[in-house]
């Protein structure tokens, strides 16, 4: 265990799987200034240590309740903007990382907490929790990527309904609309997250990084341009040592031993 700060813990779970735990249960893991800085540091440390998969989870009854509004209430405008910029930096670092990120939604995920989860590649959630971009309830809007990422995940109409009302939705509804990819009984969530993480970590890191890049860049393009992007990525992958190992393992009927590093 590596305590990046009192609020954020980075664990090496082995097999290139790392876990960041938000440890402010008394504040529902709200993102204060110090917490955000520690989160950004933890993401960087996971990447520097060769993470293939990163789990992101909360402690207590919440995943993350978003920006620490009690802390923000006493800030000047410049301080509020700096706080928001820090949240954006941490969330964007998760989104831009070459490793696969999994948001393990153990409890309430609101505002910046859901924006953080939206920056992850995969979201799995406990049954019976609530999720929402609730900023309109306090006279604001999602300012850490939510206004852009949520419509890309669930579509414009559903995203607008969630953001304009500011009302949370259930994890059951979130699964139906594709906001989370999997719903798990609360008592089974941690075990399921670890099984999924180790499965993904067993895949070729360059191939996973290529899949992420193709999906995230391609979805912004016309289909013909996206298909060209896909074809342009093939030589590096088909010529890689990991692909050669994959073909050999297939022929020899064994599990592949991938050694490639995502760039």
Structural topology:
Layout: E1 2-3, E2 8-14, E3 17-22, H1 33-48, E4 53-58, E5 62-64, H2 69-73, H3 77-96, E6 100-105, E7 108-110, H4 112-118, E8 122-126, E9 130-132, H5 146-154, H6 156-165, E10 169-170, H7 171-176, E11 182-184, H8 189-201, H9 205-218, H10 223-238, H11 241-252
Parallel strand pairs: 3-4, 4-6, 5-7, 6-8, 7-9, 8-11
Antiparallel strand pairs: 1-2, 2-3, 9-10
Helix content: 40-55%
The CATH topology of the largest domain is 2-enoyl-CoA Hydratase, Chain A, domain 1
* Sheet with the most strands: spatial strand order: 1-2-3-4-6-8-11
Q: Tell me, what's the shape?
A: globular
Write down the CATH class of the largest domain: Alpha Beta
Query: How many runs of DSSP E, i.e. beta strands?
Result: 11
Element-by-element helix/strand order? EEEHEEHHEEHEEHHEHEHHHH
Number of helical runs? Answer: 11
Summarize the biggest pleated sheet: 7 strands, mixed
Strand content: 15-25%
List low-pLDDT spans.
Answer: none
- By helix and strand content, what is the structural category? alpha/beta
Mean pLDDT across every amino acid position = 95
CATH homologous superfamily of the largest domain?
2-enoyl-CoA Hydratase, Chain A, domain 1
Rg from alpha-carbon coordinates = 19 Å
> Could you give the distance between the termini?
26 Å
The CATH architecture designation of the largest domain is Alpha-Beta Complex
Q: List the domain count as a whole number.
A: 2
Short précis:
By secondary structure, the chain is of the alpha/beta class. The protein contains eleven helices and eleven strands. It has two domains: 2-201, Alpha-Beta Complex (2-enoyl-CoA Hydratase, Chain A, domain 1); 205-252, Lyase 2-enoyl-coa Hydratase, Chain  A, domain 2.
